[in-house]
């Protein structure tokens, strides 16, 4: 068996396991929180390891990672109704203050870069993943308890996966015009349009069946199509942002934790923009819809 075939098999197996773990984890509120707390930690750990390879950069990987995971769990605690007291964020704030003050004693040549990359890990990774809790948990009709709705977070990832599949297929068949050649030469406008069409078709189908079941109905069919479009656009931007990040660092993959698929950032780059954009979109519908 050739190396290319072996790599293809490994990639397929890892991809299938990844989807199974993701879907299985999102099915239950406790496993969803646990799964994405781990994902948040692994992604921040990977990110800080990459930036620490740059000259004169020395981000505290351990405390920065713990802070990001804690932030995710604190948002989950608020959204699930475990607590409504924002004092839960005090340990997170103290850890951030410590990371700033700590630079006073490390005698780094460029502490501003350490601060910048530390905060970037929180804004770029911890905050977007934390917004999954906003998608997944909503206040019940009684205004006191919270209920878990796996449909929204699951569909965001399904839309991202479908967009990748549709973009690859249509790009391979029809791709001629480069989408962003400076950052990602392989992407084409034809691929992006093909991925978007596939996602919006699936979104309309989900909307149709969701509205057929009053218990599950949350968005109109048009609302679902709009969500699909938002996920496609911001997911593509998220992919391009990570490509720019890797190009700046001069690396091909962000890591090797997922054989055949690269690192955590490689797997979740699109979601880091699509998740917060979806939250903004859904709240905008509530406010102006």
Determine the strand fraction and express it as a percent band: under 5%
Binned, the helix content reads over 70%
Overall shape: globular
**Poorly predicted tracts of residues:** none
Determine the mean pLDDT: 90
Task: Supply the helix-strand structural class.
Answer: mainly alpha
Largest sheet geometry:
2 strands, antiparallel
Into how many domains do the coordinates divide? 2
Distance between the termini: 57 Å
What radius of gyration results from the CA coordinates?
20 Å
Helix and strand sequence:
HHHHHEEHEEHHHH
Number of strands: 4
- Order of strands side by side in the largest beta sheet? 1-2
- Multimerization state: single chain
Count of runs of 4 or more consecutive helical residues: 10
In short:
This protein has 289 residues and is mainly α.
Write the layout of secondary structure elements.
Layout: H1 3-26, H2 29-51, H3 61-80, H4 90-106, H5 111-136, E1 137-139, E2 146-148, H6 151-174, E3 178-180, E4 184-188, H7 189-212, H8 221-249, H9 264-268, H10 271-288
Antiparallel strand pairs: 1-2, 3-4
